[in-house]
Amino acid sequence: MERRPSLLQRAGAAELAALAAMAASLALPLVTDDAATVSVITQFTIAVMGALSVFIMLRMDLLTFAVPAFMAVGGYTAAILSVRHGVTEVIPLAAAAFGIPFLIAIPLGVLVLRMRGVYFVLVTFVIAEIMPLLLFETPGFTGGSNGISGLPAVTVFGRPVESNLAVLSLCTALALLATLATVVLTRRFRPQMESIRENELLARSFGLLAWKYKIYGFCVSAGIAGLAGFCLAEMLMTAHPSSFSAISSVNYVAYVIVGGQASILGPIVGAALLVFASNVFSLHGEVSQGLFGILLMLSIVFAKGGLVGLVSKLRARPRAPVPAAALPSEGRSA
């Protein structure tokens, strides 16, 4: 009996390239110890996880702005466990940061996934707006406007993660896991997600349980956002409502749109470009937001399918035929 290939064996070039890129990022702490560079790369790994959360939902033509809300759940979950319950080992903290948003997304998804288009966008943005309010108004649980500070160092098999390089390694490893989870989900349910994206009503008429796959995607998307929140709290050594503002959801959507939503490489490329650009533009003071906006507009106007889509189109463009007169004659002597 012929064995079926595994999911990774069936993965396309884009998925393998994304995994290779994130795996290669694990070596970055060995290459540089410059504080500014380490900070930018750490921001990049967090941005990749947030962008992947958006990318998963876009595979079903659902644009979500709820990423910061699930990031807050993951970040505060890890902070509460570490500060108030003494849990510092990375595996249970990461599992909780992924699992709690995953579980919360189940009943929430039952409510919001009934909507599509602009209604789904508005509801998810409202969720992102409500989350900071809940954090501010529950000081006994979340610390309110003070947040939860003084997070103890995370430990990996008893070894503390204290330096910036160690935090970078932790965030990169979790970003690699998030990329792997995205590859497995989008490859395993690719036909179903494509059917929902193209025409959900038609797919349902053929017996596809669209709600089931939308719940799968929504829950995994929430879990990956929770991992991003865990990493953000570890990088800042605090969990504060201002770190999870609703407006930051625009950034995660922009990473996917600019990089390209047709391939998993899009979120990675978009996050790399825009995180680097935002740090460069921040040196220009008041005009930094304007420069960032101009970059976004140029990217959208000249690369409507994202940067990855633009490169794919250029590679697929047929070459002009070589004129017959330019071809060497077989009987012509040198």
Plain-language structure description:
The chain has 15 helices and 4 strands. The protein is mainly alpha-helical. The C terminus is likely disordered. Helix 5 packs antiparallel against helix 6, helix 9 runs antiparallel to helix 11 and helix 13 packs across helix 15. Helix content is 69%, strand content 3%.
Largest sheet: 2 strands, antiparallel
Spatial gap, N to C terminus: 59 Å
Number of strands: 4
Strand order of the largest sheet: 1-4
Tally of individual helices:
15
Rg computed from alpha carbons, rounded to a whole number of angstroms:
22 Å
Helix content: 55-70%
What percentage of amino acids are in beta strands?
under 5%
Order of helices and strands: HHHHHHHHEEEHHHEHHHH
Coarse shape: globular
Overall pLDDT score = 88
Uncertain regions spanning at least 5 consecutive residues: 329-334
Structural class: mainly alpha
